[in-house]
Design goal:
heterodimer; A: 159 residues; alpha+beta; Ubiquitin-like (UB roll); DNA polymerase, domain 1; five-stranded mixed sheet; 5 helices; 16% strand; B: alpha+beta; Aldehyde Oxidoreductase, domain 4; seven-stranded mixed sheet; 36 strands; 26% helix; globular; disordered N terminus; binds FE2/S2 (inorganic) cluster
């Protein structure tokens, strides 16, 4: 039997501290989906091109399928489960995705919402070109993207 | 009761209903999806569940000498390893069961499964797969569609006579490498004679590639067998009752012993009608006594589930001296891959695989289409199956004819488009033939005659698609507190079907939508339905919901005197309350009404079955005509096509969910852009290149141009309030519209999809070379 090479890591997910042992090869997406049963973060391509697994690590938009779980030691992660308010009230971005037709099957939606939320933190009033550039790492096969662009625009300029 | 009959039209909405339907809907599945709370099949876990992994063949065609799993079985965490020898003779498929769960004597494509492992972790399962030793004697592979049907070609399925064909008898085939065939013939018996005397005859050949539906959620399943020997299957399959009968047939179990749970599906586009892992996971669950999970790796999605059929299409058309289409002949070969098992239709063909020129009036027709066995990944259904290939060829061919005749492509189509009372190329009768209206709208939306700047080109493509049918049952349960549950096994692949059901039921019964929830049950707890697909759901689910609404009203009307003995004459349920018609005053709210009529613990249960029946050959069917038109330029240095303007003009019925309806059309357009410009799974010597979503490109937000959507509504549709369909309407015309615009812009005619920059550049150079050195 191989020796236990697992590593103790401490990190914060959506405001809750976690203290776990993980294998050095385990990916962040598995840690979230399998070990913590936070299945809002999706996995599709597994090679960093679809964005279904988008999460924020210390505020930075990253693909959880590419990151070793040990890398988040000492950091704080926001997943899709952490986007709504403390009592479950939807963010303006989440509501906009619903009413503007930013989602259909929903498989890409957690990643889209996380990425779009990060965009507005960087650039509160993005142009269409900035939206297209920022969101190019999040594939959606259902919507044709028009609803996603409308949702981001309307969340950026509420009312 | 309204006066419509089961096979007729929906009742058009009155003014109040039309206003309510025009209001944008807020999807009820939205909150779960934007918060990550919605659980998909791949998110489901069970205590003690094992992970499955599979070994695929590395050779396209071969005879298995041995599969040695002895080392794999000894590895840590491994609970079971099955090879073909353990499940010899077990085959599966949607109609023809020709694909082995695990191959035992022969492999037929790279990816064909040889072994299945269940282990404590996915890593352990994959390590065991890597430790399996395989010895295969390679056989001559078959890749070429023309060679495959010649005499003396290697036969891929010599044992085909023994295959189970579900629901009848398999139509005979002329060559053992033919999966299925359709022949459409109309007009003069001897079509060659028509061609021989025609003033002009045009002939073109087109090819289209295999590619993948590209849903973001890969196939996933979780299978367990309970103490009562019931087999539970959580799945991404969109046709749960069909999967149940496939599994019952393959596994030799009574259907009642199998319970399928298909809930929210993360994208379908046809590909989720086909299940592969569920069968092997059943055997792994049997062998281990544990639940078994599988989530398909995207490389396996691309190479071993089901893809769009690649096609080779030869078209020939005769035109008279006045520019009228006289005769059309097509010979179409679809690459079916190693197994026909992903195809559900009785003739093992694609429904619209012969729809090269459907919206036109052509008196003499002969269209033969065949699906062919080759040593490649099985091909199945993908959004507008067959039509994508056929329409690219047909609308490119027609455009080329118009240009060669020196005619405007729009005028040429208008002259030949089928009008009211006329019969289309395939013999279809149209309830409303709105093709000319669609084309005239393209003219105005594109300002068609306006001269374009140099280097720009304009093109259009045009098709017609029938509204799907079938039978569907919905159940309703009304609780004493006034809450209403509608239950169904119909999966939700994102089309918005729960909102269709809720909106229609609320409007017909005149109750508040918020009291209705749609509850998805397994096949054990819900009435039969045909699943999602074929552009049928809005039509039949809306009509079943309408019937439920009418039943509920009738039930309440009958009992109103009991609940409200002093009710004035004509008192009725309106806007969620019993209202006095004379004064408009509310007499009793819905909650209280139901509290008086439905005893505690005894909820009211209703069911409604809507059966669209089938249309006779000479009866008018319901169809949507749609056209896409684009303005493009082509970069002479790179071959890149840029779309400067795109318009979609669609003949639509009454729209029930405006947001989801537009979403289907725009999403279909993006799907069409991908097929037109970038998507292709390249297979060389049976091996697929580029086995990841990084290498097989799907359109990103940067690749999809803005689309102008023009809806031409009608209330003449078979769904509730006259609804029709939208899901498979907009993708097929996109590629031919772009190809026709490229031909207009630079004078070369793309005949192969996708129109990648490399292909366009090569064609431009070849053309320039030919101009410089004209043939002598
Ligand atoms: S699953 Fe991580 S980017 Fe696709
Ligand atoms: S909503 Fe289905 S992939 Fe985006």
């Amino acid at each position: 039997m191989s020796a236990d090479v697992s590593v103790q890591i401490r990190f914060d997910v959506n405001g809750t501290g976690q203290d776990l042992r993980v294998d050095p090869e385990r990916r962040l997406v598995d840690l979230l989906r399998e070990d913590l049963d936070m299945t809002g973060t999706k996995e599709s391509c597994a090679v960093g091109v679809c964005g279904a697994c988008s999460v924020l690590v210390d505020g930075e938009l990253l693909s959880a399928c590419l990151i070793p779980a040990v890398m988040v030691d000492g950091r704080s992660i926001t997943t899709i489960e952490g986007i709504a308010g403390p009592n479950g009230e939807l963010s303006a971005m989440q509501e906009a995705f619903i009413v503007e037709g930013g989602l259909q099957c929903g498989a890409c939606t957690p990643g889209q919402v996380v990425a779009a939320t990060a965009l507005l933190r960087e650039q509160p009033d993005p142009s269409d070109a900035e939206i297209r550039d920022w969101m190019a790492g999040n594939l959606c096969r259902c919507t044709g993207y028009a609803g996603i662009i409308r949702a981001i625009r309307s969340a950026a300029a509420p009312g | 009761m309204s006066d419509h009959d089961a096979r007729g039209l929906g009742t058009p909405p009155d003014a109040a209903e039309a206003t309510a339907l025009a209001k944008p809907e807020r999807r009820d599945d939205g909150p779960g999806k934007v918060t990550g709370a919605t659980r998909y099949a791949g998110d489901r876990k069970m205590p003690g569940a094992l992970w499955a992994a599979f070994l695929g063949s590395q050779v396209p065609h071969g005879r298995i000498r041995s599969v040695d799993a002895s080392l794999a079985r000894t590895l840590p965490g491994v609970r079971a390893v099955l090879t073909g020898a353990d499940v010899e003779g077990v085959l599966f498929g949607r109609r023809l069961q020709d694909r082995p769960v695990l191959a035992w004597d022969r492999v037929r494509f790279v990816g064909d499964r040889l072994a299945a492992v269940a282990a404590d972790t996915l890593e352990a399962a994959e390590a065991a797969v890597a430790a399996i030793e395989v010895d295969i004697e390679e056989l001559e592979p078959l890749f070429d569609l023309e060679l495959a049907v010649r005499d003396g070609a290697p036969v891929l399925h010599p044992e085909a006579g023994g295959y189970v064909y579900m629901g009848g008898t398999r139509p005979p085939v002329a060559h053992p490498n033919v999966q299925g065939r359709t022949l459409k013939q109309r007009g003069e018996e001897d079509i060659e004679a028509v061609f021989a005397r025609a003033p002009r005859v045009f002939e073109h050949e087109f090819t289209t590639p295999r590619h993948h539906a590209g849903y973001i959620e890969p196939h996933a399943t979780l299978v367990w067998i309970d103490d009562g020997d019931i087999v539970h299957v959580v799945t991404t399959n969109k046709t749960p009752f069909s999967l149940r009968s496939q599994m019952a047939t393959s596994l030799g179990l009574p259907p009642a012993q199998i319970e399928i749970e298909a809930g929210v599906i993360g994208g379908d586009f046809g590909g989720k009608g086909y299940s592969v892992d569920e069968f092997a996971c059943y055997f792994l669950a049997r062998a281990t006594g544990r639940p078994v999970r599988a989530v398909t790796r995207y490389a396996d999605e691309l190479s071993a589930t089901n893809v769009r059929h690649a096609a080779r299409l030869r078209l020939r058309t005769a035109v008279d001296a006045d520019g009228r289409l006289l005769a059309h002949q097509a010979d179409i070969l679809f690459d079916g891959g190693a197994y026909a098992s992903a195809k559900p239709l009785p003739h093992l063909m694609l429904a619209a695989g012969n729809a090269t020129m459907s919206p036109y009036r052509i008196p003499n027709v002969r269209i033969e289409a065949r699906t062919i066995y080759t040593n490649t990944v099985p091909a199945g259904h993908m959004r507008s199956p067959g039509e994508v290939q056929a329409l690219f060829a047909g609308e490119s061919h027609l455009d080329a004819i118009a240009r060669e005749l020196g005619e405007d492509p729009l005028e040429f189509r208008l002259r030949n488009v089928v009008r009211d009372g006329e019969v289309g190329t395939l013999g279809d009768h149209f309830r409303e033939a709105r093709g000319a209206e669609v084309l005239e709208t393209v003219r105005s939306a594109m300002d068609w005659g306006r001269p374009l700047p140099a280097g720009r080109g304009r093109g259009l493509a045009f098709g017609v698609r029938h509204v799907g049918g079938g039978a569907l049952t919905l159940g309703l349960r009304l609780a004493p507190d006034g809450r209403i549950e509608v239950f169904t096994a119909l999966p939700d692949q994102g089309g918005g079907q729960t909102m269709v059901i809720k909106r229609v039921l609320a409007l017909v019964a005149s109750i508040d939508e918020s009291r209705i929830s749609v509850v998805r049950r397994t096949t054990a707890g819900a009435p039969f339905d045909p699943g999602v697909g074929g552009s049928r759901v809005t039509h039949i689910a809306s009509r079943a919901a309408e019937m439920l609404g009418e039943q509920l009203r009738d039930w309440i009307d009958e009992r109103l005197p009991r609940a409200l003995p002093d009710a004035p004459a004509g008192a009725e349920l309106r806007d969620d309350a019993i209202v006095d018609p004379a004064t408009g005053h509310i007499l009793l709210g819905f909650d209280e009404l139901i509290g008086r009529l439905v005893p505690a613990g005894e909820p009211l249960e209703l069911t409604a079955t809507f059966d669209a029946g089938t249309h006779g050959p000479d009866e008018s069917g319901d169809n949507d005509f749609a056209a896409c038109a684009v303005e493009v330029s082509v970069d002479a240095d790179t071959g890149t096509i840029t779309i400067h303007d795109a318009v979609l003009v669609v003949d639509v019925g009454t729209v029930i969910n405006p947001v989801a309806h537009a979403g289907q059309l725009v999403g279909g357009f993006a799907f069409g852009v991908g097929a037109a410009l970038m998507e292709e799974l390249i297979v060389e010597d049976g091996v697929m290149a580029g086995l990841s979503l990084g290498e097989t490109r799907l359109p990103t937000i940067r690749d999809v141009p803005a689309l102008r959507l023009v809806l031409l509504p009608t209330t003449v549709g078979p769904g509730a309030f006259g609804a029709k369909m939208a899901g498979e309407l907009s993708n097929a015309p996109v590629a031919p519209a772009i190809a026709n615009a490229v031909a207009d812009a630079v004078g070369i005619r793309p005949t192969q999809l996708p129109m990648t920059p490399e292909r366009i550049l090569a064609a431009l150079r070849a053309w320039a070379g030919a101009e410089a050195n004209p043939p002598t």
